[in-house]
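$ ./design --mode recover --in tokens.txt
reading tokens...
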């Protein structure tokens, strides 16, 4: 079973950037669709974006399109979430996920906190 560990969260001012990483182990990373989700306080977990097994195709939620970029390095078993032009409403715990698609998740990371100050 694949295991996922996120890193890279922190506190950043509005307009700034952060890059999250998600390292996978225990499975064949290249077989999985990878995705990022987030959960803000008092809200349900929501989809952020996803990439296919090779990284050649990505899809994003409208709320982050044009500001966030997902990439993956299959040689390093790692997926990244580059977040630019951050807004206070991006504040959340960010989770990476692996599965057959972003709607068929089989593994979740533990989450990493991102706080955007105004």
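writing sequence...
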């Amino acid at each position: 079973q694949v295991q996922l560990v996120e890193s890279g969260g922190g506190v950043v001012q509005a307009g700034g950037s952060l890059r999250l990483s998600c390292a996978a182990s225990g499975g064949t990373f290249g077989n999985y669709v990878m995705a990022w989700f987030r959960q803000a306080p008092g809200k349900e977990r929501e989809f952020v974006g996803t990439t296919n097994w090779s990284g050649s195709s990505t899809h994003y939620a409208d709320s982050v399109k044009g500001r966030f970029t997902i990439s993956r390095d299959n040689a390093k078993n790692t997926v990244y979430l580059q977040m630019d032009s951050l807004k206070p409403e991006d504040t959340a715990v960010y989770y990476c996920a692996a599965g057959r698609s972003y709607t068929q998740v089989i593994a979740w990371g533990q989450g990493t906190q991102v706080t955007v100050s105004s």
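exit 0
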